[in-house]
Hints:
Layout: E1 15-18, H1 26-41, E2 46-51, H2 55-60, H3 71-80, E3 85-89, H4 93-96, H5 100-111, E4 116-120, H6 133-138, E5 146-150, E6 154-155, E7 158-159, H7 162-171, H8 174-181, E8 185-192, H9 197-200, E9 206-210, E10 221-229, E11 232-241, E12 253-258, E13 269-279, H10 287-309
Parallel strand pairs: 1-2, 1-4, 2-3, 4-5
Antiparallel strand pairs: 6-7, 8-9, 8-13, 9-12, 10-11, 10-13, 11-12
Amino acid sequence: MKYFKDQSCDFIRPVLTMGTFDGVHLGHEKLLKCAVQKAVEKNTKSVVLSYYHHPLETIHKKTFPYLLTQREKKEKLIKDCGIDYVLNLDFNKRIAQMSAQDFLKQIIIDKIGAQCLVVGYDTHFGRGREGNIQFLKDNAVKNYYCLEVVEPVMMGNQIISSSLIRDYIREGDLVKANKFLGHDYSVHGFVVTGHRIGREMGFPTINVIPFDDNKLIPAIGVYICKVFVNGSKYAGVTNIGYSPTIKTSRVKQIEMHILDFNEDVYNKDVEVCFIKRLRDEKIFKDKQELINSIAADVKVTRKYFKQKNS
Length: 310
């Protein structure tokens, strides 16, 4: 049975950690760096066992907008912590029905050959989530692996978790979300042709379609953002919503005005990083009132980046 898509296990007796790692937040970072340190101590490689998408998609046979980190970004953030290899499990129906014992024996021991497992305090795996910390402790000696359990990272009285970060993003609180992530929340996508109404008003915009349909989009509103285009970073103002003053399509869009930028980027890849929510999306009495509001948003955004860089 092939467990990984186009990936091979080119290592011997590695240190392994596993999980979805959606967001690669500060709690994940602590776990990943612990795995790296253990690998250094044991003079071996560090390996992450993860998934392209959340296992719940396979179990419930549906997609939904939950994803914090798209695949390429997630792998980069994981490797930035020092991890040597990232294996993405082909989580199909057969894997979903695997018992914890079979998962441990067939994948973790026989296929990967782990000599040490570094896991989070709330680790679960296998059919019915029956694999947990106690299960791993009970099976350590006979399978010749050591076990390291990493405690959660707290911020105030809250445990940093992907689900909590999702809640903040759905509420539009990107300041808190970014604080818990340890980096700016971003949407990676491609630029499509819009109605060109922004250009007529003096504020040309780009419309961004996320590469992944499962990507979680922040709450409707106007945000201070930065955007990466062709390797360069720019400041911008992003509206998520329906632009009700000038549009009647009722199609939610990610529309961004990039400050001091006038290049043609249609069909190109961009990454929009959300920094702070400025205001709700509003219906203005006329186009001029909308123009005045956008100008005010741009002024606030310029001031933000000026203070940030001073």
